[in-house]
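Tokens in:
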């Protein structure tokens, strides 16, 4: 037998340092841990960070150490990062005032703990972004740049999965409303974004990632009209895109039962997408993971309602 040599970026030698994944029971965090395991990082080198210990049971059952690290508790974070060299800080899902202060508390604790690399999941095009979501990311990036912790910025694009919970409704009504116009969105799958984080965290040559900002969007981008065209062909039922003003779209979301803060956030993101805010021509994602990014056709079937 002979050894096959893989030439892609993601085949770098694996670090022997310990890696801490914050938010390891969340949508992205779970998949980051899985991709670390897929990359043959030994379980003994992975630490799963969670807000409450019992929420890390899925990892404890697999023999991975779980530590409690609520973002707003500096002492707990310092304790959780003991003996850890690399950290992934997944942005807090607290919408509103608490988010930035949680990030600052965590970053200061990471500095105190002496970590050698902190990767932060930011937002695509963060420095120039006008999304309602952007200020917390911009201010976290600014804080990181002066905090004295070696860092990498993983500027994650829009998840395909963000739209998946609405797919049954799109099919039911034969329509998707929105206010993104002809704006292109460089969606990426949670799996591809998690794999990129795992590549950076596990790379033995971490110095090449320090101080870098990666713009992580999919190789292909989609307008809402293109999105529903793919949905129509996969589901065998025509779905049309109806473009409406932002205020009308927000009202539709409120009537569908979304809380005010989320309706505003979704409608705002759509209106910003119309201006190109969720689009990138960067190929940082496929370069990091060493393969083409997943397309809508790859990931959408999982979101289709199961036929009875």
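Residues out:
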């Amino acid at each position: 037998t002979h050894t096959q040599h893989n030439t892609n970026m993601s085949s770098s030698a694996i670090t022997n340092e310990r890696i801490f994944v914050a938010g390891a029971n969340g949508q992205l965090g779970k998949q980051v841990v899985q991709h670390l395991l897929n990359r043959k990082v030994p379980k003994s080198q992975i630490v799963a960070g969670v807000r409450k210990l019992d929420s890390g049971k899925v990892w404890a059952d697999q023999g991975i150490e779980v530590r409690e690290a609520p973002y707003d508790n500096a002492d707990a974070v310092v304790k959780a990062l003991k003996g850890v060299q690399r950290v992934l800080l997944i942005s807090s899902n607290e919408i509103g005032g608490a988010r930035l202060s949680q990030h600052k508390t965590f970053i200061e604790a990471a500095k105190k703990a002496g970590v050698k690399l902190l990767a932060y999941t930011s937002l695509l095009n963060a420095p120039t972004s006008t999304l309602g979501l952007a200020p917390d990311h911009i201010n976290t990036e600014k804080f990181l740049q002066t905090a004295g912790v070696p860092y990498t910025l993983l500027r994650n694009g829009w998840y395909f999965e963000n739209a998946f919970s609405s797919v049954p409704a799109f099919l039911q009504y034969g329509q998707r409303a929105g206010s993104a116009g002809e704006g292109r969105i460089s969606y990426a799958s949670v799996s591809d974004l998690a794999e990129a984080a795992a590549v950076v965290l596990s790379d033995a040559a971490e110095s090449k990632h320090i101080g870098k900002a990666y713009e992580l969007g999919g190789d292909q981008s989609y307008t809402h009209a293109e999105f529903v065209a793919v949905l129509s062909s996969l589901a065998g039922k025509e779905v049309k895109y109806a473009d409406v003003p932002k205020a009308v779209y927000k009202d539709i979301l409120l009537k569908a039962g979304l809380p005010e803060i989320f309706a505003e956030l979704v409608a705002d993101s759509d209106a910003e997408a119309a201006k190109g805010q969720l689009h990138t021509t960067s190929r940082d994602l496929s370069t990091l993971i060493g393969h083409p990014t997943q397309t809508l056709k790859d990931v959408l079937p999982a979101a289709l309602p199961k036929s009875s």
